[in-house]
Target: Polyphosphate kinase
Amino acid sequence: MTVARRTATKTSRTKKIADKPAQALFFSRDESWLRFNQRVLEEAQDSSNPVLERVKFLAITASNLDEFVEIRVAGILQRIEDAYKGAQPLDEGGLRPQERLEKLREWLAKFVDAQYRCWNEQLLPAMKKENIRVLSWDELSNEARERALEFYNAEVDPLLTPVTIDPSHPFPRVLNKALCLALLLRLKRGGKKAPTVLGVVTVPRSLPRLVALPGTQGFSDFILLHELIESQVERMYRGYEVLACSAFRVTRNSNLYMQEEESRSVLESVREELHNRRKGDAVRMEIASSAEEEMTERLRTNFELEPWQVFRTDGPVNLSRLMNLYAEVKRPALKYPPFAGKEFHLSDKTADIFEELRKRDVMLHHPFDSYKTVEDFIEAGAADPRVISMRQTLYRTSKDSPIFRALIEAAQSKDVTVVVELMARFDEDSNIRWARDLEDAGVGVSHGIFGFKTHCKLALLVRRDPDGVVRRYAHLGTGNYNPVTARFYTDISLLTSQPKITEAAQKVFNYLTAETVGESYAPLLVAPLTLADRFIALIERETAHAKAGQPAAIVAKMNALIDPRTVETLYAASQAGVEIDLIIRGMCTLRPGVKGLSERIRVRSIVGRFLEHSRIFWFANSGKPEVFCGSADWMQRNLFERCEVVFPVTQPDLMKRLRDEILAAYLADNTKARLLHPDGEYVRASSTGEPINAQELLMQLSAK
Model:
């Protein structure tokens, strides 16, 4: 669907809504995202969580905020700049870019303050009780200083390049999110009248940000790497008087802007844009709260930032690197108990997974069901001489992935095609390397359809079975082919040999590799071709059932709901009598519980041990339920700007598991669930009665 068509569609829809202003119908997606990050921060603040898990949650909020600033805030600043050339469009909350920015500025300032209060007032004392300390240089014992200096001399000093800013030494190019030290310096030989100059040292990214020290009386002690470097700056700047020193970090615009050019391959275009991203315009500067005002102003002026774009940090600059603390401290009692998903076993008298799939579909709910089953499926395809060809999409994977290795091995004896998405945000570098490695091994590599990210999760094996019949076997999922994230992301996998599904999956691969558009992809829902309209039709079918007095209900679980057309269709369904339960981890622009608009819509978000990533869509359909899973959220980018696949689950026992076990657990959660109120606030679900934690319940069920 073209931008013009989508705009026209949205205009016609808007006219159908009762004369309500946009802010009465929709929450701002950006404020909704910030509320999600606030829910993650609440897990860091929650003393019932193990202390190292709380540190991990805090680090996640910082990493999330980085992405928000370099993508969303950067985008708003660009729209403000573009607005001077023409009209300023309103966003989903009814605000112009400058107005939205004013609101976000307040949110960001409050959130950063809350992050550091959590660190200083809650986590540091809680860690100290467990004999874990993050110390400053002045707090170190003589023995600890000696060990720290040994590390500095051997590992750190050789990587440092001190720079002094003067007419012959311009300001160095500070890379995106690189931690640096700024110094205010004065030449000793010039005396007190000598002018001050600025010095900059980049903290090596290749080293851990927390340096382990010899413990004292059972303590696990650490010093931040930049504080260790700061203690030695006079050695780097001999001949200068160091007047002040402070850590700072600059976040830059990280949006990729691709232009289709016949002379370039997609791989070359992405590689060039990655280089540009590292040098994008500055959007934010973080600097220690103790930094001298003169130093801060010089840096702010150099990076061409407004005062509001400077964030003073009362603690470590870049809290995301606290994730190292979680990894370094080997204290299982201070983390969640280890958990391994349930292993899949073949039925009695079944020789292999292919024979199993000829009898029945297999559905897995990760991480409660082991992801190894998916790996085994791909590895079986690579090793089985009866498998003729293999096709797979790769959006994000991991280093040394068994799936990646299996695809390379398979290419030695059969036809293998892999669609590698080069523009998976922040994974572009690694995906470029993987694409080249696959090509070198003889794999046919495609990069999908230009302008549309390949986000669907598909694997298709073609096999000549022992009976001589050529059959297709498929894996369809909601999550990436990444064994690492599969241990802490919740996702659904379906393994099937159903001819209708596997034939449709082949049509999807033909679309991705040759842009051939099929007449129908049923029973699959495929974006950007059929998915948006099909979802609308499914919601409208429930609306028609409700108007006819028949059973009508929707339960949908996803990461985000921000597509205006879908929101408006859900409003209409609610008004017709459809009962709607939405389980949405992150952004939600729909206002639930508004009289006359969304009284029958309930929205809940669950933030817990595992990242809720599965997408499940259940429709009552007048007593003949239908349920779908897939890679797409109800967002414009998923519906119109990505290649996505949503697949039906039709086997009765699997449908029952999705509705009565998985979705039911999330709807019953009164421990980690937060309920969205009409004013935009999220309030913890009532804990009256027996406490239910959905993820813990599903872990218990997997152990049976």
Notes: Residues 51-83 form the longest helix (33 residues). The two ends are 47 Å apart (CA to CA). Residues 1-15, 257-264, 273-278 have pLDDT under 50 and may be disordered.
